[in-house]
């Protein structure tokens, strides 16, 4: 196994800065592009990541440490961010994401203070028994998944414009 808590934290710490650097100065056309109906644009991905900071990984970690496998932790609504009507700037979103992530990494470091904690188990409502180590690994890979998703979405915007070069552009396959 490759999991290392400090390495996972490296990814978690970099994600807000990476996304802000990548997206902050892009035009509206880039920020509202998607891969089609039922997919998310970059702003919606940021909103989803903010929801995850509030209601997913740290709350589930705390639930595992308190309840163990005795009770399944509450399900997470992966689409809750789509029901928000609050208008915020991209800068406000990045600021909120960075603040929440910084707080959550501090909580993670406080809660997972030994290798033994990483092996504690809880009950996922759909997946069954899961370990803290698996939850934290998933959190880091979840970030990487959404960075990849945003890259795909941006590339998709120019799919028709690249003409025959599409065959050489793996992101468009």
TrEMBL record:
User: What Pfam families does this protein map onto?
Assistant: DinB_2
Q: Where is the signal peptide?
A: none
User: Sorted alphabetically, which InterPro entries does this protein's record hold?
Assistant: DinB-like, DinB/YfiT-like
Task: Give residue ranges for domain DinB-like.
Answer: 12-150
Its domain of life reads Bacteria
- SUPFAM superfamilies found in the cross-reference section: DinB/YfiT-like putative metalloenzymes
The identity of this protein, by name, is DinB family protein
Q: Which organism is it from?
A: Halobacillus salinarum
What are the top taxonomic ranks of the organism? Bacteria, Bacillati, Bacillota, Bacilli, Bacillales
